[in-house]
Amino acid sequence: MINFTLNGEEKTFDGDPDTPLLWVIRDAEKLTGTKYGCGIAQCGACTVHLDGMTRRSCVTPISTVDGSSVTTIEGAGGREAEAVQAAWTAIDVPQCGYCQSGQIMSAVSLLQFNPKPSDEDIDNAMAGNICRCATYVRIRQAIHDAAAKLEG
């Protein structure tokens, strides 16, 4: 039995301990905001927060989250998440939208640890989050806009 918190709710998983966290989130818990992109932690579509840090859920065995807290896009909240989501909407960041939950989760984490990131900070934090529609310029601008909103 693997016990963990998912978006603030206590959960138990009684299955194969090698099952990727992504499949527990999507199949067992029916939260489909976290996407499957590549299955090898290279695209970022599956990014979640594990104990407050970004994690690629497609390669994270559920056994490694025992006793931990997992946050998905459905559970993202707080000042940073609200600012990022508002900025994303205000400048129409997504095109197809498939990668956006992973992009947002990475952006939220960045702003939690660095409330005033430079372009270089953003590029480093967002590296590995692939957008096949190439909305990188809008993503960077949205992060800057969210940071400015958080400053007040």
TrEMBL record:
It comes from the Bacteria. One of its GO terms (molecular function) is metal ion binding. Residues 1-76 form the 2Fe-2S ferredoxin-type domain. The keyword Nucleotide-binding does not apply. CDD domains: fer2. Keywords: 2Fe-2S, Iron, Iron-sulfur, Metal-binding, Oxidoreductase. It holds the Pfam family Fer2_2. This is (2Fe-2S)-binding protein.
